[in-house]
Amino acid sequence: VLITGYVGLAVAGVGAMSGVRFGLFTIAGLPVGLAAISAMLCGATSGFLNGFIISRFKQPSFIISLAFKYFTAGIALIASNGQSIASGMPGNVKNIAQTISGLPLPIVYAALISLVFLFVQNSTVFASQAYAIGANIKTARFSGINTVKVITSVFTLSGILAAFTGIIIVSRFSVADCSMLPGLETDCIIAAVLGGTDINGGRGTILGMIIGALILFTITQIMNFLNVAIYDQQIVKGVVLVLAILVNDTIRNKIKV
Q1: Pairwise CA distance, residues 67 & 13, whole Å
Q2: What is the pTM assigned to this prediction?
Q3: N or C terminus: which one in the chain shows less Cβ crowding within 10 Å?
Q4: pLDDT band for position 101 (50/70/90)?
Q5: How many whole angstroms separate alpha carbon 5 and alpha carbon 161?
Q6: How far is CA 168 from CA 34, 37, 43, in A?
């Protein structure tokens, strides 16, 4: 999303909505696999609508994605009655996020998804079009790129992955909480920017994002080890984000020169 020159602030809401839906689907008797697919379809629909409105009607992504954040978070609150759903889910819900041979499945999922997107980034026209849109959307339109289709697809993929994240959280803890994944959108942006993604679009890599996520994870773990209060951690993350943006801006200016 950032590479295309847009920002997605709805990922936390989409993750919470889809996670709650997943929990409710399993409680209703839907098989776990089918419940997960149904919940990801909810995320895909949200992402599609988000991206379509932004691209088709040329609306600012900050405002529209923020609106979808509140919209999806509201659905999660209504569906769960504002409470954590901790009972009634079948035991096999945990199978999605279990540990196999000492290796947590969420790590396996992250690795596989990263490999898929590394391939997309390096070997597909779709990725080239996304970079072109981020670099200069007007030029991309003149070159024949269907910007509405590409941008909508990018946001749809974001919605699917946000939904999958919510499902993993619910599976891991067997609790569907409407307030899960707080600050996820901020952490995503920090990780991407730390990894060299240009906040203005057109530059960034999947590998860089992974490195940025590991850096953010390390910083968070160090603060937890030092017993830094959660409120102070938010300040540190804000400072890190500003510094990362300034460094990226300096690099971009040098590249232009």
Answers
A1: 10
A2: 0.94
A3: C
A4: confident
A5: 19
A6: 14, 12, 14
